[in-house]
Amino acid sequence: MAASCSLMAQPAMAEKVVRWAQQSDIPTLDPYAFASTPALAFQNHIYEGLVQWNEQLEMEGALATRWEQRDDTTLRFYLREGVRFHNGNDFNADDVVASIARVTHPDSGIRGNASSIKEAVKVDEYTVDIRLSSKSPIALNELSGILMMDKEWMEEHRALEPTSMSKGTEGYATNNTNGTGPFRLESRRRDAEMVLVKNADWWNGDQAQHNIDRIIYKPVSSDATRLAGILAGEFDLVSDVPLQDLPRLEKEKRVEVMVRPSLRVIFLSLNMADELNAGNVDGKNPLQDRRVREAMHMAIDREAIVKKIMRGMTDVANTFVAPAIAGFDAERGVELGYDPERAKALLAEAGYPKGFKLAFDCEQGYYLNAEQWCQAVQRYWARIGIDSSLNVHPRSVYSQIRDNGRTDVAVLGWANLPLYDAYSINQQLLHSRDGGIYGAFNIPRFKNDTIDRLIEQSNTELDQQVRADLMGEVLALAQQELPFLPLHFEPVAWATSDKLSITQNPDNVVRLWYASLN
Length: 518
Fold this sequence. Notes:
InterPro entries: Peptide/Ni-bd, SBP_5, SBP_5_dom. The chain is 28% helix and 23% strand. It has 518 residues and is an alpha+beta fold. The two termini are 31 Å apart.
């Protein structure tokens, strides 16, 4: 009996399990609810798009085997046959049509990531036309972030319409999944644990690079607990290591530390609407004056923040995009260095010699060391007379405060994913809000007619050099106006056990379907 029990236990003991810890939970499993890199990274283990970025960040087919440009506004996709969703339903053109309708719905939380997509039309069971709003150079980039869902499953669970984190809506797809990807959801306990298991029927199983049977994802808010867990071998991957802990981890033979610059720029977003949440000054919102915005930027010692709080592991950001993003031009960046005396003079010149009050809201457990640099910014502003009341919130609360304009200063990180293109920031942050595809994250309520025109022109420009020039011009103009104050490039900081082999890319997307356990 003992020998029999031992033999029976062997498969479980041989199971290859990756234990993944991160500071905060994935707030939703609905792939159309929230434009977030961590959410995207997790959901891509479960769901797949027609196309995808591979491990080398090259575009390739996923649920589509090939595609062709039929005319200026039509892309025809030939779907992979024999693919099944996790519940056994077949994947076909009906699912693509329903998914595109859902993601382009006005209430979709990632509607801005599908700005060029108009609709999908079924040609036959495994052929579908994606119709564009106009000719577009970035349609494939956008489709890489549109993950395909099962029409029958959505109908069964009344999930044909999307949910939105910004609007605080939830539905069946918030906590339940049914994808075609390499892993399927086994269980979810919000803010405690999620378990994914290998999809034994994955269409790409014969070519799979990973050897992982199970992924256990744990949100662990305590930095000390995550550090202790990776040191004790309780975790195999910590994908947001506090920078101050890296030197200690580098001394451990059983731990590999992975640090590199990312594509994400960290910003402060300023409320440029007619009314301040903290109350106007003599009937005016001071943040509408560019001199005030310049003063606020000059008052922040960003070099000190990078050196002390970010441990010198990144650089000050003087541009709205990272160097790897098309449209980047270092020579046309923000040229305002730390100068508190000049900042005071600008405030006085603008008519606010005694400063003013602001509501300041920061996010907990998402951006590296955010609470520390938010507190530092608050202190710098106090030195020039700006009294900012700082409040820190978890993401589930913070998103609704920030995205609905219920604060005067918010924090925001933007990596231009899944497009890997400056059109992302131009279209979603810098174009004025139109209630449709433009300005979804224009939190400041910034409006510049010239910038709007240039963005719309770049949207249909197929000549890549002309298009890059247009995007660069948009960024240069916006950087002069400072609706967002750039702080620094957020570094990617991971720690893994020596058993896990995984590639780290600057997009900070964890791709465990390319990883392996020794």
